[in-house]
Amino acid sequence: MQSDSPLDAAYWNTRYALGQTGWDTGEITPPLRDYFQQMALPHGSRILIPGAGRGYEAEYLHAAGYENVCVVDLAPEPLRDLQRRVPTFPAAYLLEQDFFSLLPQPPYDLLVEQTFFCALDPTLRPAYARQCAALLRPGGTLMGLLFDTEFSSPGPPFGGSQAEYKAYFAPYFVFQHFVPAYNSIKPRQGKELFVCLKKKE
Ligand SMILES: C[S@@+](CC[C@H](N)C(=O)[O-])C[C@H]1O[C@@H](n2cnc3c(N)ncnc32)[C@H](O)[C@@H]1O
């Protein structure tokens, strides 16, 4: 999906190699942490974090006892960083590949979104929603954060609006939450939507 795009593995690898990673918060962000703390998901559930980067959410969930947390990223450097920080994280769950080439075998119970959707060429947004739905079991959850703002400089990140995003997800998901986040980190306050969508049965 990404091979003829300028936003390919080489692009992202270079960003990591040059330290041009302004999106990297260095720790799990409060909206995801607070959601994880109250979610009633069995520890054996299959969880996927697409475009995970250094995977602070994966680290958090692993420490909380979730055994089947997978991260996928085109770039090897952030996956190596996660492995270095968390040596007990299963190497088999560090997937260095294109999110769009993943297969739902077996399907996932939960997908976690943070600054991956906004990193994709916007023409891929319908395919992102379709692929999330394909990877989840019926009733499975896609949750996370989407930017509800436009950016002045050329992307990534690419911005958008609640109305635009809803159109991508509506064919596959029931909307549980699609609201302004109240606990964003300071630089993102007032610019993020907290989303929690259930795949239609
Ligand atoms: C803006 S960064 C966000 C990383 C992480 N979610 C975070 O919040 O720190 C976007 C990430 O998506 C990865 N990426 C971009 N396109 C991808 C694709 N098609 N499949 C898998 N990973 C991809 C990049 O390598 C990069 O690590």
Structural account:
By secondary structure, this protein is of the alpha/beta class. It has a single domain, classed as 3-Layer(aba) Sandwich (Rossmann fold), CATH 3.40.50. The chain has six helices and seven strands, in the order ααβαβαββαβαββ.
Question: What topology does this entry show?
Answer:
Elements: H1 9-17, H2 30-38, E1 46-50, H3 56-63, E2 68-73, H4 76-85, E3 94-96, E4 108-113, H5 125-135, E5 136-147, H6 162-169, E6 173-180, E7 192-199
Parallel strand pairs: 1-2, 1-4, 2-3, 4-5
Antiparallel strand pairs: 5-7, 6-7
Bound molecules: S-adenosylmethionine.
Summarize the structure.
It holds the Pfam family TPMT. This is Methyltransferase domain-containing protein. This protein is an alpha/beta fold and 201 residues long.
